[in-house]
Every structure is written in structure tokens, then in C-alpha cells.
Amino acid sequence: MLKEFVKKNKTLASDVGWGFLLLVGSLIVLFLLFAFFPNVKADLKSYLEGHGLFGYFSVMTFGSLPVPFPIDAVFITAFSFYSQKWSLIGLSILASTIGSVASFWIAWSLKEKVQKFTGHRFFVTIKRYFEDYGDYAVLLIGIIPFAAVFDVVCFFAGLFDMDSWRFLVGVIVGRTLHFLLIAFILSVI
Length: 189
Hints:
Elements: H1 2-8, H2 12-36, H3 38-63, H4 71-81, H5 85-109, H6 111-118, H7 120-143, H8 149-159, H9 164-188
């Protein structure tokens, strides 16, 4: 199945290269944001220190719902001062997975209303596309740091009846690689 996908998409290597450049660029932008606006990082750090790992878990879970919230910025801030790096990574994976599964089930329960609102033709067109590439979307977009569309992909997975076990495996693997990748880059920098 993966071989067929790669054969169909000859530009996959190019896309991965661009994804890596996007990752590096996003990290640079985040570091510049923290450098030019130190109060953002200080306020976030103050909140996380005041509420501990439970506060971190709550923020990460909420940020994994389909709301515009930068969980990677929270992770990077927490990674800079928490001494238990592996616990932080594990907690991030767990919180992100719980938020993603919640998005999946929220969308699943709203499926009929969304179909009425968007129209049957649009709904079926997007569903067909998601049936072809949904597994790859959950896994690959789940790995890419600062991919705000991951929340939307999780929502679409529930909306278009993706198998819940395949979704869960994709989210866990994708988010594990996601946070390990960011932690590795932060450790090297």
C-alpha cells in the first residue's frame, strides 16, 4: 500500500525536503518570536511553573482540540526548563493523543449536521479524497512540527468515518515522532 502511494506520488522526496525546510524555518520563527517578545515566553513559563505538569497536560490537551493554539510553542517552552525531559515527552504524546481522539469523536457525532451544512456533493468529494490519503495524512501531518492543520485532519478523520484503530495508531506514532523530533532538535541547538 505504501509502495503504491510512493509510485503515485513521485514528488514525495521533494515534499519531505520542503517539509524539513518548513520545520527548520518554523523553529527559527519561534525562536525569533521569543527573542523579540520575551514576555510571551515569560508568561507561558510562569503559568507552567505555577500549575506544574497538570497545567501543562491541560494546556496540551486543550491545544490538541480543533482550536488555533500552538502546542509546539508550549512544548518548547516547557522543554527549556523542565528537568524531566522524557516525562514531558510522554505527557505531550498522551495529551496530544487525547485531544486528537476527542476531535475525532466530536466530528463523528456532528457528521450529519456537517453534511447538511456543506452539501452532499462537497462532502462526498472530500470524503473520497480522505479515504485515499487519510491514513497518510494523519501519520505524516502528525509528525510535522507546527502543522496547525493536524487538528483539522483529526476532525476530518472522524467526519469521514476513518477506522478508529487506524486513526489511533496513526496519531500515536505520528505524535511520538513529532515530539521526539522537536526534542532532538532542541537538544542539538
